[in-house]
Amino acid sequence: MTPEPDAPRGGIHPSAIIEPGARLGRDVSVGPCAWIGPKATIGDRTRIGAHVVVEGWTDVGADCIIHHGAVVGAEPQDLKYRNEPSRVIIGDGNTIREFVTIHRGTLAGEETRIGDGNLLMAYVHIAHNCRLGNHTILANAVNLAGHVIIEDYARVGGVTPVHQFVRIGAYAFIGGGSRAAQDVPPFFLAAGNPIRMIGVNVIGLRRAGFSAEARLILQRAYKILYRSKRNTTQALAAIRETLPATPEIERLVAFIDSSERGIS
Question: Strands of 41-42's sheet, edge to edge?
Fold first, then answer.
């Protein structure tokens, strides 16, 4: 199989610039005209495509693929930034597609953190202080404002802006072209502009191995939250009183209880 031209397997292209101080692991590939800054660390077997920029205090894990034109570790687009040492930390096995931008934290010691096994499609923007869990998928041109949290296995459809400080719960699914201005609870589906909740992510949960019983209990919780005409406090009380305390229900209740922006 022929390697992709923008992310060759093995070797540093002669036109790439690796600044003194940059640390590259074993079998790292760096494509044409890429630039790796002096404070960057690149993990084993990671492939850096053509014209990629990795700057600032940035750690990229092993077995990642960063496609051409992506910018990782850039200064945050935040007027509070004062050139302090903040970080981007990226785990293992991530795929970062063309022209993705990932900005580091705003203040000294703060960080933007991305877990393992995520897919960031072309033109995704990850702003300062965001946190992504593991195995998330952000489709083309998703834009995360600062301090957004995306939990494990969440899916966000293309061209969706997510307001600062919003959280997207684990296994949630947001349809493309939506606008997320409040938290989206785990396990549920949301879509639209303005966004609205449309049910339980049954297909995603089935694919992820959740049992039929777990899915049924989540559907009952959804009806209490969104179909019973209770307010959020009353709905949570009803969920606690009437549904078994499964791990999924405990996670759902804890997510909503800790919401600062309110749920969609």
Answer: 23-24, 41-42, 57-60, 87-90, 111-114, 131-132, 149-150, 167-168
Report yes or no: 43 and 29 within 8 Å, Cβ to Cβ. Answer: no
Amino acid identity of residue 75, one-letter, is: E
Give the pair of three-digit tokens for residue 188: 């549920």
Indicate the residue type of 138.
L
CA distance linking residue 262 with residue 97, whole number of Å: 32
Residue the block writes with tokens 């002096």: 38
Cβ–Cβ under 8 Å, residues 189 and 201: yes
* Cβ(114)–Cβ(98) below 8 Å: no
Identify the CA nearest to 226 among candidates 187, 254, 168. 187
pLDDT, one tens digit per residue, over 161-209 is 999 999 999 999 999 999 999 999 999 999 999 899 999 999 999 999 9
Name the residue type at position 88: V
Phi, psi of 38, rounded to the nearest 5 degrees: -70, -15
pLDDT tens digit string along 227-238? 998 999 999 999
> What is the SS3 assignment for 62-85?
CCCEECCCCEEEECCCCCCCCCCC
Q: Which regions of 159-201 does DSSP assign to beta strands (E)?
A: 161-162, 167-168, 173-174, 188-191, 196-200
Centroid of chain to Cα 85: 22
